[in-house]
């Protein structure tokens, strides 16, 4: 689909994001169901998804809430998990930084893994796109994603409120995390970061208030950054040795 106008850019964004629906529907439903299983009511669960709109951070917070971790630690852990959004924003800025403030603010709120990946792929493939076309494409990518995140969070919450406690669905949270991170192992830096984070989290498992999660996350990020820097230095033609 050729992009010649903002309308065609918006339509292409929608089309490119349609495959993500297969992921968003079960994830949102599972979050809604597990949130009510953890003790949140339907309104609280839906508000959680609307305000935070970040699957990994929401599942992290939910896991810690079930363990009666202090609120400050829950917020810090969710923030640590969501730090990648700062990196997403930094890499999107050269492409859409010239857009009006209200559009950038809305894009910041709606930036999720799916919209970021689709947008960056398109921007790099078609650098001739204008800023309005890039923004239209970005909003197209979130059109099938964001509303479905809200809707199926609500569906999951409504279903979850009728699920018997004897079903014990807590096990689904760690399984969900495994499904979320598995496709991210694309480079040696990713693998090294994950491996170090796992090892440190096991070592720090007895740290009070689940702070081992933050410690492990920081250790993983530092390791990943160092490995990536090392890989850059080893590239042919690199001046840094």
TrEMBL record:
Key words of the record: Cell membrane, Membrane, Transmembrane, Transmembrane helix, Transport
Record localization: Cell membrane
PANTHER family: INNER MEMBRANE PROTEIN YGAZ
Organism expressing this protein natively: Sulfitobacter dubius
Pfam families reported in the protein's UniProt record: AzlC (PF03591)
Membrane topology category: Multi-pass membrane protein
Transmembrane segments: 14-34, 46-65, 135-159, 171-204
Record-given protein name: Inner membrane protein YgaZ
Signal peptide: none
Membership in a protein family: Belongs to the AzlC family.
